[in-house]
Amino acid sequence: MVRRAAFVRPFVYRPSGYTKGIMEAQAEILRTQLRANDGDLYLCHLFTPPDQRARMLALYAAYSEIARIPGEVSAPMVGAIRLQWWRDALASAAAGSAASPFVAALASVGFRADDIACLIDGRTLALERAQSPTLDVLETEAAIVGPAFMRLSLEALGLGETPCPDWARDAGIGFELVRLAHNGPSEAVMTRATTWLQTARSGFNALPRRDRAKLLPAFLIIGLTARFARRWPAQDLLLRHQMRLLVSAFRGKI
Topology of domain 24-251, per CATH? Predict the structure, then answer.
């Protein structure tokens, strides 16, 4: 689902006032890398309100960097070392040392440590699984990473104290399953993911408009993912994909 083509920005960046402790040079590194790693997350973060955009950028950039590790390493031990580096770097950043722009950004916004740990721990499972994992194995991974990703997305919007509904957990599992589909039985994984995502869409879209507006920046990616899963293996043209995002943002529904 990662899209690397050049994107038409829906609006011009206004960085002053929203970086909040992240140096603009670091923020630009995060934006550039996120755009290269994950076009959908890059687009969706642009729709976060300006005063919260730095937090969402930090989360999405770190998520995409950590998610790449299992597929990039030549041996599980190498991947384990890289994941441990993230754990150690985040611990050091909390004590005032910044190991990289990604770590500095993540540490500066104070996300819950246990949810950040889930993003890393889920990739540890990916290093340990067989070459052809079953749907159940992939779903176990998705159940570790996905719900934590959604809780962190809500925290990025300043909604961390709000109880996370069950359908938000379903959204996270479906989102992560789609991103793991190429590792296993893709058709079965997409079918299962569509079920999770449809439950999440129904829960979100049933909310009053005012409540949806507060949550929408965290769930735009879920709307895109749900459409991708429903249409798989067919894919929209990039412009149509972008228009779908704009329509969702305008209507306030996914």
Answer: Farnesyl Diphosphate Synthase (1.10.600)
